[in-house]
Specification:
Radius of gyration: 18 Å
CATH topology of the largest domain: Lipocalin
Strand content: over 45%
Number of helices: 0
Largest sheet: 5 strands, antiparallel
Order of helices and strands: EEEEEEEEEEEEEEEEEEEE
Shape: globular
Distance between the termini: 45 Å
Length: about 200
C-alpha cells in the first residue's frame, strides 16, 4: 500500500504487518492518488502555495528510489492512468499531459475544449473524462487528438466507466447515460428514478 502524509513524505507499507517498507521525501505537502506500472509507482506532488512548483514522480515500487520526476503546470490532484508505456495526468482542469513511463519525457500535451472534472478512463484506445462544462470527451491515447464529445444535461464529476463497448456516466442533474465508446453517440438515457428519458 502507498500513502502520503501532509509533511511531504510518501510511504510504502506492508498491509499485513503494518510495517513501513520505505519512505520518500517529496518537495510538496500534498499528494494525488498513486498508480503502479511496471514495478514503478507514479503520483503527483501538490503544492499548497500558489507560488509553489508541482511535480509528478516515478519511484521504484520495491525500494522507493527515484526513477524520474517532472514539473507540472498545475496541481495533479487525481490519480494518473497508464496505458502501455504511457502515463496520463491532468494538470489543473484545462491541461492533459502524456509522458513516457520509463523516462518521464513528454509525448504530448493538450488543452482540451472541455474542462477535466473527473478521473480519467482508458478504454478502446481512448482517454475519456467527465466535464463540469456538461459532457464527456474522448481523445486518442496515441496523440491526444479529439475523437468525440458528448453533451450532457449538467456537470459530470464522477469518473466514467466502460463495459462491452459502452461508456456509462451520470450527471449532477440526475441523468444517467449510456454512450457508444466508438462513436460517442447516445445509446440510451435514464433519470435517477429509473425511468427512461427521451
Amino acid at each position: 500500500m502507498y500513502v502520503g502524509d501532509t509533511n511531504g513524505v510518501f510511504y510504502a507499507m506492508d498491509v499485513s504487518s503494518e510495517k513501513i517498507l520505505w519512505r520518500f521525501q517529496a518537495e510538496n505537502e500534498g499528494f494525488s492518488p498513486s498508480v503502479a506500472i511496471d514495478k514503478k509507482v507514479v503520483f503527483g506532488s501538490v503544492a499548497f502555495r500558489d507560488d509553489g512548483t508541482n511535480w509528478v514522480y516515478a519511484l521504484n515500487a520495491m525500494t522507493g528510489e527515484l526513477i524520474w520526476k517532472i514539473t507540472s503546470s498545475g496541481r495533479v490532484v487525481r490519480a494518473p492512468v497508464v496505458n502501455s508505456r504511457s502515463v496520463y495526468f491532468a494538470a489543473t482542469h484545462h491541461e492533459l499531459d502524456c509522458v513516457d513511463s520509463e523516462t518521464g519525457e513528454l509525448k504530448w500535451k493538450i488543452r482540451p475544449a472541455m474542462a477535466i472534472s473527473s478521473g480519467l478512463l482508458i478504454a478502446n484506445g481512448l482517454l475519456l473524462w467527465g466535464s463540469s462544462d456538461g459532457g464527456v470527451i474522448a481523445v486518442d491515447v496515441a496523440d491526444g487528438g479529439e475523437r468525440w464529445k458528448f453533451k450532457t444535461k449538467g456537470s459530470v464529476r464522477a469518473t466514467p466507466i466502460h463495459e462491452g463497448g459502452v461508456v456509462f456516466v451520470g450527471s449532477l442533474t440526475g441523468y444517467f447515460y449510456a454512450i457508444d465508446a466508438n462513436t460517442g453517440k447516445q445509446k440510451w438515457r435514464a433519470k435517477a428514478d429509473g425511468t427512461k428519458a427521451k
